[in-house]
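C-alpha coordinates in:
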Protein backbone atom coordinates (compact mmCIF):
# COMPACT_ATOMS: atom_id res chain seq x y z
CA UNK A 1 0.00 0.00 0.00
CA UNK A 2 1.47 3.39 -0.95
CA UNK A 3 1.77 5.50 2.20
CA UNK A 4 1.59 9.24 1.65
CA UNK A 5 1.83 12.18 4.03
CA UNK A 6 0.74 15.73 3.43
CA UNK A 7 1.77 18.65 5.60
CA UNK A 8 -0.97 20.80 7.10
CA UNK A 9 -3.48 17.96 7.25
CA UNK A 10 -3.68 14.64 9.05
CA UNK A 11 -1.18 11.97 7.98
CA UNK A 12 -2.91 9.16 6.13
CA UNK A 13 -2.81 5.85 4.34
CA UNK A 14 -4.12 5.90 0.80
CA UNK A 15 -4.65 3.10 -1.69
CA UNK A 16 -5.52 3.91 -5.29
CA UNK A 17 -7.31 1.75 -7.82
CA UNK A 18 -6.49 1.64 -11.51
CA UNK A 19 -7.95 5.03 -12.42
CA UNK A 20 -10.31 5.45 -15.35
CA UNK A 21 -11.37 9.02 -16.07
CA UNK A 22 -14.49 7.71 -17.79
CA UNK A 23 -15.55 5.62 -14.81
CA UNK A 24 -14.68 7.13 -11.42
CA UNK A 25 -14.44 4.64 -8.54
CA UNK A 26 -15.96 4.73 -5.03
CA UNK A 27 -13.93 5.76 -2.00
CA UNK A 28 -14.03 4.30 1.51
CA UNK A 29 -12.96 6.72 4.26
CA UNK A 30 -11.92 4.89 7.43
CA UNK A 31 -11.53 6.37 10.93
CA UNK A 32 -9.49 4.26 13.35
CA UNK A 33 -9.98 3.63 17.07
CA UNK A 34 -8.34 5.21 20.11
CA UNK A 35 -5.42 2.83 20.47
CA UNK A 36 -4.17 3.55 16.94
CA UNK A 37 -3.59 7.27 17.54
CA UNK A 38 -0.03 8.52 17.28
CA UNK A 39 2.55 9.23 14.59
CA UNK A 40 3.20 5.76 13.16
CA UNK A 41 0.95 4.95 10.22
CA UNK A 42 2.12 1.34 10.24
CA UNK A 43 0.02 0.60 13.32
CA UNK A 44 -3.11 1.08 11.21
CA UNK A 45 -2.06 -1.83 9.00
CA UNK A 46 -2.01 -4.35 11.83
CA UNK A 47 -5.70 -5.16 11.78
CA UNK A 48 -9.23 -4.28 10.67
CA UNK A 49 -10.08 -2.60 7.39
CA UNK A 50 -6.60 -1.17 6.68
CA UNK A 51 -5.03 -4.62 6.95
CA UNK A 52 -7.76 -6.17 4.80
CA UNK A 53 -7.24 -3.52 2.12
CA UNK A 54 -3.47 -3.87 2.28
CA UNK A 55 -3.62 -7.65 1.88
CA UNK A 56 -6.45 -7.76 -0.66
CA UNK A 57 -5.49 -5.27 -3.34
CA UNK A 58 -6.42 -4.70 -6.04
CA UNK A 59 -9.86 -3.62 -4.84
CA UNK A 60 -12.65 -1.79 -6.71
CA UNK A 61 -12.50 1.27 -4.45
CA UNK A 62 -10.08 3.94 -3.30
CA UNK A 63 -9.20 3.74 0.39
CA UNK A 64 -8.29 6.64 2.68
CA UNK A 65 -7.39 6.28 6.37
CA UNK A 66 -6.14 9.38 8.22
CA UNK A 67 -4.43 9.08 11.60
CA UNK A 68 -5.12 11.12 14.72
CA UNK A 69 -2.37 12.46 16.98
CA UNK A 70 -2.36 11.20 20.57
CA UNK A 71 -5.11 12.73 22.68
CA UNK A 72 -7.21 13.96 19.75
CA UNK A 73 -10.70 12.88 18.68
CA UNK A 74 -12.31 12.74 15.25
CA UNK A 75 -14.99 15.19 16.33
CA UNK A 76 -12.26 17.75 17.09
CA UNK A 77 -10.60 17.15 13.73
CA UNK A 78 -13.77 17.07 11.63
CA UNK A 79 -12.70 19.99 9.42
CA UNK A 80 -9.34 18.32 8.68
CA UNK A 81 -11.04 15.07 7.69
CA UNK A 82 -13.38 16.89 5.31
CA UNK A 83 -10.50 18.93 3.86
CA UNK A 84 -8.52 15.75 3.24
CA UNK A 85 -11.54 14.17 1.57
CA UNK A 86 -12.04 17.25 -0.61
CA UNK A 87 -8.41 17.17 -1.72
CA UNK A 88 -8.69 13.60 -2.91
CA UNK A 89 -12.02 14.07 -4.67
CA UNK A 90 -10.56 17.07 -6.50
CA UNK A 91 -7.35 15.34 -7.53
CA UNK A 92 -8.31 11.71 -8.16
CA UNK A 93 -10.84 9.84 -10.26
CA UNK A 94 -13.17 9.38 -7.28
CA UNK A 95 -16.93 9.25 -7.67
CA UNK A 96 -18.16 11.89 -5.18
CA UNK A 97 -21.57 10.21 -5.13
CA UNK A 98 -20.09 6.95 -3.84
CA UNK A 99 -18.12 7.88 -0.74
CA UNK A 100 -18.57 5.57 2.24
CA UNK A 101 -17.49 6.59 5.75
CA UNK A 102 -16.66 3.91 8.30
CA UNK A 103 -15.25 3.87 11.79
CA UNK A 104 -14.17 1.52 14.54
CA UNK A 105 -14.77 2.36 18.22
CA UNK A 106 -13.57 5.99 18.65
CA UNK A 107 -13.68 6.20 14.88
CA UNK A 108 -17.34 5.20 14.88
CA UNK A 109 -18.21 8.17 17.09
CA UNK A 110 -16.34 10.34 14.59
CA UNK A 111 -18.06 8.74 11.60
CA UNK A 112 -21.50 9.33 13.10
CA UNK A 113 -20.66 12.95 13.84
CA UNK A 114 -19.09 13.72 10.46
CA UNK A 115 -21.83 11.98 8.49
CA UNK A 116 -24.54 13.77 10.45
CA UNK A 117 -22.77 17.11 9.93
CA UNK A 118 -22.31 16.50 6.18
CA UNK A 119 -25.09 14.07 5.21
CA UNK A 120 -25.04 14.96 1.52
CA UNK A 121 -21.38 13.91 1.26
CA UNK A 122 -21.80 10.21 2.01
CA UNK A 123 -23.52 7.31 0.28
CA UNK A 124 -23.22 5.02 3.28
CA UNK A 125 -22.02 4.63 6.87
CA UNK A 126 -20.48 1.56 8.49
CA UNK A 127 -20.25 1.68 12.29
CA UNK A 128 -18.22 -1.01 14.10
CA UNK A 129 -18.07 -1.35 17.90
CA UNK A 130 -18.82 2.27 18.63
CA UNK A 131 -21.22 4.71 20.20
CA UNK A 132 -23.03 7.56 18.56
CA UNK A 133 -21.24 10.79 19.44
CA UNK A 134 -22.77 12.44 22.50
CA UNK A 135 -22.63 15.76 20.66
CA UNK A 136 -25.34 14.66 18.23
CA UNK A 137 -28.93 15.75 18.72
CA UNK A 138 -31.99 14.05 17.26
CA UNK A 139 -32.31 16.84 14.69
CA UNK A 140 -28.86 15.90 13.40
CA UNK A 141 -29.69 12.21 13.44
CA UNK A 142 -32.60 13.03 11.17
CA UNK A 143 -30.08 14.08 8.55
CA UNK A 144 -28.84 10.50 8.44
CA UNK A 145 -32.16 9.05 7.32
CA UNK A 146 -31.10 9.29 3.65
CA UNK A 147 -27.83 7.42 4.27
CA UNK A 148 -27.90 3.59 4.35
CA UNK A 149 -26.23 2.46 7.57
CA UNK A 150 -24.58 -0.80 8.61
CA UNK A 151 -23.93 -1.30 12.34
CA UNK A 152 -21.86 -4.17 13.74
CA UNK A 153 -21.36 -5.08 17.38
CA UNK A 154 -20.16 -8.04 19.39
CA UNK A 155 -22.66 -9.53 21.84
CA UNK A 156 -19.84 -9.85 24.39
CA UNK A 157 -18.62 -6.27 24.01
CA UNK A 158 -18.13 -5.07 27.59
CA UNK A 159 -17.60 -1.48 26.44
CA UNK A 160 -20.88 -1.05 24.62
CA UNK A 161 -24.31 -2.33 25.76
CA UNK A 162 -26.45 -3.82 23.00
CA UNK A 163 -29.41 -1.89 24.41
CA UNK A 164 -27.73 1.47 23.77
CA UNK A 165 -27.05 0.60 20.15
CA UNK A 166 -30.55 -0.78 19.66
CA UNK A 167 -31.98 2.51 20.92
CA UNK A 168 -30.11 4.41 18.20
CA UNK A 169 -31.22 1.88 15.60
CA UNK A 170 -34.85 2.30 16.68
CA UNK A 171 -34.53 6.10 16.63
CA UNK A 172 -33.08 6.12 13.11
CA UNK A 173 -35.67 3.68 11.80
CA UNK A 174 -38.39 5.79 13.40
CA UNK A 175 -37.06 8.77 11.44
CA UNK A 176 -37.32 6.78 8.22
CA UNK A 177 -33.70 5.64 8.00
CA UNK A 178 -32.38 2.42 6.48
CA UNK A 179 -30.36 0.65 9.15
CA UNK A 180 -29.01 -2.90 9.31
CA UNK A 181 -27.87 -3.96 12.79
CA UNK A 182 -25.70 -7.09 12.99
CA UNK A 183 -24.75 -8.61 16.34
CA UNK A 184 -21.90 -11.13 16.34
CA UNK A 185 -22.90 -13.66 19.07
CA UNK A 186 -19.34 -14.56 20.09
CA UNK A 187 -17.78 -11.19 19.32
CA UNK A 188 -16.20 -8.84 21.85
CA UNK A 189 -15.16 -5.23 21.17
CA UNK A 190 -12.46 -6.19 18.67
CA UNK A 191 -14.50 -7.61 15.79
CA UNK A 192 -13.04 -5.45 13.03
CA UNK A 193 -11.13 -8.25 11.25
CA UNK A 194 -14.23 -10.40 10.99
CA UNK A 195 -16.54 -7.56 9.99
CA UNK A 196 -14.47 -5.96 7.26
CA UNK A 197 -13.37 -9.20 5.62
CA UNK A 198 -16.97 -10.27 5.03
CA UNK A 199 -17.67 -10.49 1.30
CA UNK A 200 -21.23 -9.20 1.67
CA UNK A 201 -20.03 -6.01 3.36
CA UNK A 202 -17.30 -5.55 0.77
CA UNK A 203 -19.93 -5.76 -1.96
CA UNK A 204 -22.15 -3.33 -0.05
CA UNK A 205 -19.35 -0.77 0.07
CA UNK A 206 -19.28 -0.48 -3.72
CA UNK A 207 -23.01 -0.79 -4.34
CA UNK A 208 -24.16 2.40 -2.58
CA UNK A 209 -24.74 5.69 -4.39
CA UNK A 210 -26.09 9.06 -3.32
CA UNK A 211 -27.16 11.28 -6.18
CA UNK A 212 -27.61 14.26 -3.84
CA UNK A 213 -23.94 14.31 -2.84
CA UNK A 214 -22.05 17.59 -2.89
CA UNK A 215 -19.51 17.62 -5.70
CA UNK A 216 -16.12 19.22 -5.11
CA UNK A 217 -14.93 20.82 -8.32
CA UNK A 218 -11.39 20.12 -9.45
CA UNK A 219 -9.11 23.10 -9.26
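Residues out:
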Amino acid sequence: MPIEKRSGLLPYLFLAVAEDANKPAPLVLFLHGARDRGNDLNVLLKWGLPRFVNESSPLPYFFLAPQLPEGHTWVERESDVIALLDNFIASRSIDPYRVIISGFSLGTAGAWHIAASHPSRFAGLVAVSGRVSKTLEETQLAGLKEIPIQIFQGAKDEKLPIEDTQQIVDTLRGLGGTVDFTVLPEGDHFIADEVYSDSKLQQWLVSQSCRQASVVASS
